[in-house]
Design brief:
Length: 191
C-alpha cells in the first residue's frame, strides 16, 4: 500500500507554516485549496498543485483549531476557544463569530444544510445555514442560525460525519450514534 501511494517518504512534499501540530484538514469543493487547522490557533490555506504554496493564514481563534468544514462556499472552523467562525472563501476573511459554547469544540460536520459541532462536555450543537447577510465585499454570505443543543454523549464528541441527511457522532463514552433526518432531536441508534 505504501509504495502504491508513494508513501516511502522520499517523494512527499512538506508544507511548512504552522508552529504547532496540525489537527484537521479540509479541501475546497473545487480542489484548489487545502485548509489546515492547528494547535497554534491558525488556519492555513495552501495551493494543491506544485509548487504547493501557502496562500493565506487565517487568524482569530485563540485555541486549538480542532475542526474545519466547508458548506455552501463558507469555511467554518471550531476551536478549543469555544468559538465557531465563518470565513468567506472568496476573501478568506472572517464574516461571523458565533457566541461561545460552554465547552471546547472538538469536532464538526455538515449534513442536510446544517452544521453540527461536538464538544468536550458531550454536547452537540446544530445550526442552519441561511443566506441572510452581506459580506465585507458586498456579497451575500451564509450565516449560521442556531437551532438546538442536546447532551449527545457522556464524554467528549471527538468525531462527527455527515452522511447525506444523517449525522454520525463518536465520543469518549465509546458509543457511536446516528442522528436521523439531520436532527439532533432524536438518535436513530446507539452502538
Amino acid at each position: 500500500l505504501g509504495e502504491t501511494l508513494g508513501l516511502s517518504g522520499s517523494g512527499a512534499t512538506i508544507l511548512r507554516g504552522h508552529s504547532h501540530h496540525c489537527w484537521c484538514l479540509v479541501l475546497s469543493s473545487d480542489g484548489d485549496t487545502l485548509f489546515s487547522g492547528s494547535a497554534d490557533g491558525t488556519i492555513r490555506a495552501w495551493t494543491t498543485q506544485p509548487p504547493y504554496e501557502l496562500k493565506a493564514t487565517l487568524r482569530g481563534h485563540t485555541g486549538v483549531v480542532y475542526a474545519l468544514v466547508i458548506l455552501r462556499g463558507w469555511l467554518i472552523s471550531g476551536s478549543s476557544d469555544r468559538q465557531i467562525r465563518v470565513w468567506d472563501m472568496r476573501t478568506l476573511s472572517c464574516e461571523q463569530v458565533l457566541p461561545e459554547r460552554q465547552a471546547p469544540l472538538l469536532s464538526m460536520a455538515h449534513a442536510g444544510g446544517f452544521v453540527f459541532a461536538g464538544c468536550q462536555d458531550g454536547s452537540l450543537h446544530q445550526w442552519r445555514c441561511a443566506e441572510a447577510a452581506t459580506s465585507s465585499n458586498g456579497g451575500s454570505i451564509g450565516v449560521l442560525e442556531f437551532v438546538c443543543s442536546v447532551q449527545a454523549h457522556e464524554g467528549g464528541v471527538y468525531a462527527a460525519l455527515g452522511v447525506g441527511e444523517q449525522l454520525a457522532t463518536g465520543a469518549a463514552d465509546a458509543k457511536l450514534r446516528f442522528w436521523a433526518g439531520a436532527s439532533v432531536g432524536r438518535a436513530e441508534s446507539d452502538g
